[in-house]
Amino acid sequence: MQHFAVDAVLLLLFSCLLYLLSSSAAQVERIYVDCNSTASNYTSGSVFEENLNRTIASLVSSSSLSSGFNITSVGQNLDVVYGLVYCIAEQSDRDCQACANIAAMEIRSRCPNQKEAYMFYNNCSIRYSDWRFFSTADSAVIATIYNVNIATDGVLFNRQLRNLLKNISSQAASSPSKYYLGITSHTENVNIYAMMQCTKDLTENSCLTCLQGLISYLPTDLSNVGARFFSMSCNLRYETYSFFLSPLPPSLVPEKNGTSTTPTAKTSGQAGKNNTSEIVLFVVIPAAIALVVIICGCCLWRITRRKRVGNSEDAHEDREKSVESLLMNLSTLQVATKNFSDSYKLGQGGFGPVYKGKLLDGREIAVKRLARSSGQGLEELKTEVVLVAKLLHRNLIRLLGFCLEDGEKLLVYEYLPNGSLDRVLFDQTKRFPLEWERRYKIIVGIARGLLYLHEDSQLRIIHRDLKASNILLDENMNPKISDFGLARLFGGSQTQGNTNRIAGTYGYLAPEYAKKGNFSTKSDVYSFGVLVLEIVAGRKNSSFSNGMNLPSYAWQHWAKGTGLDLIDPTLGDQWTRHEVLKCIHIGLLCVQEAPADRPMMSAIATMLSGYTASSFPAPSQPAFFVTNSTVENPELGLIKNDPGASSPLIYAEAKPESSKKSLNDVTISDIGPR
């Protein structure tokens, strides 16, 4: 109860702070709101809500918003909250702070219990989510505001505007502030003023891609003399009057009658406003700072109190509670699956069958029945299940629980109605819904899921068995990475490991893993590259004869300049040329022989969000390269068939470079040191 009392005090003080600052604010107009009803909800009074309150308070604090932009995250695992706020360029600090305060209040009141929401205003925007969206460019136009006035010469105006936006987009992307202003002369007495801006978390390439995306949304017959375009990651504005608050360098201002005109930052009509600003600075701001000090003091007291309780005891209790919350009764799962009836069987994987089930509350589930011969201890399995259950990302399958009764080892996952990617991609009867737009979104979703596993989750996780049959599709065909039976969990800065027992699927194994048992995030990148090429071509890597494989086939076409011949013929001409070539390029980069030559998943995510592949490094001949005349001999050992895979499942003895033994022949994961 004391915790909630402190929270109530913090929230009250925070509300007072918002009121004091926003009471003197300029008029703020809300443009767009989306509470993302498709995202999951949180419970009132939960740890997630507490973290959300802290996130929003931190986002709009005057010290952190001084540059007009702020990102932060609060919490861990399932309860982490990511937040971002930024102000439209050319706003004063006072107007930016006022807009952010109002946005913070409204997003909590208009989107109650939603784990993801974003709102746009005329001066600022705010966004929060339970997944890490930072540094990801999204140029899809969410809102547009047009000036109703029409240019007298629409064709000329449109051409001049596009040239201006093209010029300043590159300047904005390369600028540390991620925004840029520009002017061009339209007629003798009329100029066109424009501004383009990105959120500051974007790289130069991502920002440029976002701004170019906005430009592509401009109608070809556009003749409105002013408009504003808003997306999640960038925005643009143009008018035939100066809306700038800052002066432009004289070199950027068009000359009229031999003289240079520079817009001034403030006009004489703003004198009265300056007096009000001084009052705000000397009265409201000190009061706000005092409240911030009080809030920080309360937070410090709470943190100190928690430390006195005892970290070790709390951690043990939290683990036990997590285990208990995930445990499910065998009888419950037997009822849900009709005692594991064959009619409820969804498929057979390398570690056992998977059954569809329906709980008494109506939830549909998928139950994986692990082989009884699995050698992993119950305590280790409990610990690992708890860790995997804390992985929460829209592109990872969610583990709901587990059961360890009567010798059974059952894992319970969310049920995804569209099954695995390989059945949709390679099944002739189910390929019709997988048009190119869906395929590209699937590739992007898989990349985001892997990026989370490699860099953004609490532990660094290497999947080790990424393939089409381990990608499941939800009702909207969104991909979710599944089957962590071979996953390895690393703590701290550990990025690679070694095993003397190689377990994976032939055709997806990186050469260093297949030959020496060395695995790392780059071995997952190799598997991702094969998967990307399969999605583009609509063919299994194992479908080739005479030892030929898909990376070799793709490389031969790429080297001859006929890369587009790789695309699945069932797509017809309904695909985007630059996206297809970009995916083939990325796929070939991922399957390079040396791990160092393969990109990180963070770089791949940036490449996929980019507009062109002109800045990508050139790929070289892939690993395991063969031609039609080459007979492939993998020499990997015993090959076992996996009915659910697009290639055989491999268990092969290798000679590792170290004497470290693998702890997971068929397990959920291995736990690395923290």
UniProtKB/TrEMBL annotation:
<keyword id="KW-1133">Transmembrane helix</keyword>
<keyword id="KW-0325">Glycoprotein</keyword>
<feature type="signal peptide">
    <location>
        <begin position="1"/>
        <end position="26"/>
    </location>
</feature>
<feature type="compositionally biased region" description="Basic and acidic residues">
    <location>
        <begin position="654"/>
        <end position="663"/>
    </location>
</feature>
<keyword id="KW-0723">Serine/threonine-protein kinase</keyword>
<feature type="domain" description="Gnk2-homologous">
    <location>
        <begin position="139"/>
        <end position="243"/>
    </location>
</feature>
<dbReference type="Pfam" id="PF01657">
    <property type="entry name" value="Stress-antifung"/>
</dbReference>
<keyword id="KW-0675">Receptor</keyword>
<dbReference type="InterPro" id="IPR001245">
    <property type="entry name" value="Ser-Thr/Tyr_kinase_cat_dom"/>
</dbReference>
<dbReference type="InterPro" id="IPR008271">
    <property type="entry name" value="Ser/Thr_kinase_AS"/>
</dbReference>
<keyword id="KW-0067">ATP-binding</keyword>
<keyword id="KW-0418">Kinase</keyword>
<dbReference type="GO" id="GO:0004674">
    <property type="term" value="F:protein serine/threonine kinase activity"/>
</dbReference>
<dbReference type="Pfam" id="PF07714">
    <property type="entry name" value="PK_Tyr_Ser-Thr"/>
</dbReference>
<feature type="domain" description="Protein kinase">
    <location>
        <begin position="340"/>
        <end position="624"/>
    </location>
</feature>
<feature type="domain" description="Gnk2-homologous">
    <location>
        <begin position="30"/>
        <end position="133"/>
    </location>
</feature>
<dbReference type="InterPro" id="IPR002902">
    <property type="entry name" value="GNK2"/>
</dbReference>
<keyword id="KW-0732">Signal</keyword>
<keyword id="KW-0472">Membrane</keyword>
<dbReference type="GO" id="GO:0006950">
    <property type="term" value="P:response to stress"/>
</dbReference>
<feature type="region of interest" description="Disordered">
    <location>
        <begin position="652"/>
        <end position="674"/>
    </location>
</feature>
<dbReference type="GO" id="GO:0016020">
    <property type="term" value="C:membrane"/>
</dbReference>
<feature type="transmembrane region" description="Helical">
    <location>
        <begin position="279"/>
        <end position="301"/>
    </location>
</feature>
<protein>
    <recommendedName>
        <fullName>Receptor-like protein kinase At4g00960</fullName>
    </recommendedName>
</protein>
<dbReference type="InterPro" id="IPR038408">
    <property type="entry name" value="GNK2_sf"/>
</dbReference>
<keyword id="KW-0547">Nucleotide-binding</keyword>
<dbReference type="InterPro" id="IPR000719">
    <property type="entry name" value="Prot_kinase_dom"/>
</dbReference>
<keyword id="KW-0677">Repeat</keyword>
<dbReference type="InterPro" id="IPR011009">
    <property type="entry name" value="Kinase-like_dom_sf"/>
</dbReference>
<keyword id="KW-0808">Transferase</keyword>
<keyword id="KW-0812">Transmembrane</keyword>
<dbReference type="GO" id="GO:0005524">
    <property type="term" value="F:ATP binding"/>
</dbReference>
